[in-house]
Amino acid sequence: MLRIQSSAFSAIALHAVLFVFPIHAQDAPAPAPPADPPPAAAEPLSVKPLRGPAADATATTVKPRAPAFAETGPEWVTPGKNPAHTRYSALNEINAGNVGNMRAVSTFSTGLSAGHEAAPVVVGSTLYFVTPYPNVVYALDLNQPGFPMKWKFEPKVVAASQGMACCDVVNRGVVHDNGRIFFNTLDGQTYALNAETGEEIWRRQLADIKQGETMTMAPFVAKDKVIVGNSGGEMGVRGWAQALDVATGETAWKAYSTGPDEEVLIGAEYNPFYDQEKGENLGVTTWPTDMWKTGGGTVWGWISHDPDLNLIYYGTSNPGPWNSSVRPGANKYTAGIFARDVDTGQARWFYQMSPHDVSDYDGVNENILVDIEWNGKERKVLAHPDRNGHFYVIDRETGEVLSAEPFHAVNSSHGVDLKTGALIYNTDKRPETGKKVTDICPAPPGAKDWQPAAFSHDTGLFYIPHNNLCMDLVETEVGYIAGTPYVGADVWMKPGPGGHRGEFSAWDMAAGAEVWTINERFPVWSGTLATAGNLVFYGTMEGWFRALNATTGEELWRFRTGSGIIGQPTTWQGPDGKQYVSVLSGVGGWAGAIVSGNIDARDGTAALGFVNAMKDLPDYTTAGGALYVFALP
C-alpha cells in the first residue's frame, strides 16, 4: 500500500440553519492545534509507504465485477450513474495521459451560499442540477457556447423548513427518467417536471415539517416507481421510504423503519439471514414503550436496485434520541440495510450494522452492487462502507455478511462476528448519561458519511472519500417535543490519529485492505467519480478539484474552485462528441457548518459537535455555489 500525504492549501464562504447547542458545565476537550497558515501555492501530493498488512493489494487475483445492469454510457442520468451505484463511466477521451491539459470551459453561479451536495445530471443536450434551499432546478443548454440557462424551475418551498434541517439546507440531486426530472424539496415535497420545458407534471406533499420532517435525498427510479425517504432523525421523527407512481405521483407503498410488522412491510416474504433479525414486531418490542414512534431510522441516503432480483437496497439512519441510555434494546429497524421488493415494498431481508446505535452511526451510506467469486462460489454482493468504520461485503440475495474489515481507525467496536453478524461493541467507549467518554473513534459522521464512493469497472477497486475524526461525548437529559431537536448528547469532535481530518482511499474488497490513501486536512465530504481513463476525481473542502491515477493514487491534475467542494462529480459526452467533467462547489453541509451557518468557533458543541473539529475551516474557504465544467482543449 501507499500513503499519500496532502499539504495544506488556501481559502472560501456560506449560510445555513443548523442546531447550535450550548456548552454545559463539563469541561470541553482541548481544541485541535491551530492549523498551519495556507501556503502561497499548493504543493504536490507526496507518496509515502502505507499502513496495513498488504503492501500490494493490487496483486489480488479475484476481483469484483460490475453486474450487466451497471451501465456505463455517455450520459449521467442519476447521481449514482446506474442502478448498481458504481459511479463509473466508460468515457476515456480524458485519461491519465492527458488529464493534465484539462481546463475549465464553463461556470454557472447559483447565487446561493448554503452547501451544494448535488450531482449534475446530463441527458442529451441538457445538464440539470438542483440547488440547496430554495431548491431551484436549472437546465443548461449544452448546444450553446458557455452552456446558458435553458429553463429554471422555482418551487414554492416553505421557509420554515430551514429551521428543521439538522445539517444545512442541502439537496443531493435530481434524477432523470423517461422525459421527466424528479427531485425533492426541503419542506417534504416530491416534484416531477417535464425535462424539456421545466413545466410541473405533478407534485406530492409527503413530509410534515411541523413534526420536524424534511427531505434532502435524491429520488431513485426503479421500474415504474420513484422512491423517496425522509430526513429528521435528530428531530424525533419516524423514518420511512415511499414508492410513488412515476406517471401520477400516487403512493404505491410506504414502509416505515420502526413499528409493527404491518407498517414496516414485513410479511411472508421476509427471510433475514441472522436470528437477531427474526421475530414478530421487532420494530416495537426492541424499544421501550412507544419510543418507536419517535425512533428515527430515516431514509435520507442512497438507493440501489438489482433488476434481476427485483430488489432495492437502502439504509436507515440513527435511532432517536442520541442518548442511548433512555432507549434500551436493539432499536429495530434503525442503523441497518433493507432489501425490499420493488413492486410491493415487502421486506426480503434486513441487517442491522449497529444495533442499539450509541454513536449516531446512520446506515444510509451507498450500497454498491457487484459480483465476485467468494471462496470459490459466485456471489451477488453489495459493498457498504459504513459509518461505524467497517467495509461490509453482504450477499445481496440473502443478507449474509461475508466480510466486514475496518477501513479506518476504529475503537468504538472490536469488529464484526461473521457467524452471528453482530457488531462487537467496545464497552469502554459506551456512553452513559452524565459521564463523559473520551476519544471515541470514529465520531458521529463516521469513518465515512453520505459522500458516495465509486467502483472502477477496470481496476476492481473502490474509491472511498472519508473522515478521520474522533469525539468526546456525554449523554444529557432529553425529552420529546414535536418539531424540536431530540438529541440528548453533547459532542466535541476532533482530528483522529495522525492529526489530519480526512482521507481518500483505494480499497481492495477481496483483500480487505487499503491499496493507497491520501491524507487531507479536512474531511473529504465530496462524492467520487471513476472513469475508463484510469482516473478518479474528488474535491476537497478547501476547494481543490483533483484527478488521480486510479491505479497508483498519483495526482495528475488539480483546479482551485471558488469554494469548498462537497458536491458529486460526474462526467458525460456533450452533443459535440467531447467528454466533459462537472462538479458543484459551495462549501457547507454538516462538515462545513461553521462556515455555512456562520457559527461562533468558541462553541465546540455547535453543529452537533462538528464545529470543534473545524475551527480553522473559515481560514481556508468561503461561501458561494457554482457549477464548474471541464474539458480538454
Outline the structure in words.
This protein has 633 residues and is mostly beta strands. The chain is 2% helix and 33% strand. The strands form ten sheets. The chain has a six-stranded mixed sheet with strand order 2-1-33-32-29-28, with no helix packed on it. Strands 3-34-35-36-37 form a five-stranded mixed sheet, with no helix packed on it. It has a four-stranded antiparallel sheet with strand order 4-40-39-38, with no helix packed on it. Strand 6 (126-130) and strand 7 (137-141) form a beta hairpin. The longest helix is centred in the middle third of the chain and has 4 residues, at 261-264. Mean pLDDT is 92; it is low at 3-43 and 46-60.
Quick structural gist:
The protein has 633 residues and is an all-beta fold. The chain contains 3 helices and 40 strands.
Task: Outline the fold blueprint.
Blueprint: E1 2-5, E2 46-49, E3 88-89, E4 103-109, E5 121-123, E6 126-130, E7 137-141, E8 149-153, E9 175-177, E10 180-184, E11 189-194, E12 200-205, E13 220-222, E14 225-229, E15 240-245, E16 251-256, H1 261-264, H2 282-285, E17 303-306, E18 311-315, E19 336-341, E20 347-352, E21 368-374, E22 377-385, E23 390-395, E24 401-406, E25 413-417, E26 422-425, E27 436-440, E28 454-455, E29 462-467, E30 469-475, E31 489-495, E32 502-508, E33 513-520, E34 529-531, E35 535-539, E36 544-549, E37 555-560, E38 570-573, E39 579-585, H3 593-596, E40 626-631
Parallel strand pairs: 1-33, 3-34
Antiparallel strand pairs: 1-2, 4-40, 5-6, 6-7, 7-8, 9-10, 10-11, 11-12, 13-14, 14-15, 15-16, 17-18, 18-19, 19-20, 21-22, 22-23, 23-24, 25-26, 27-30, 28-29, 29-32, 30-31, 32-33, 34-35, 35-36, 36-37, 38-39, 39-40
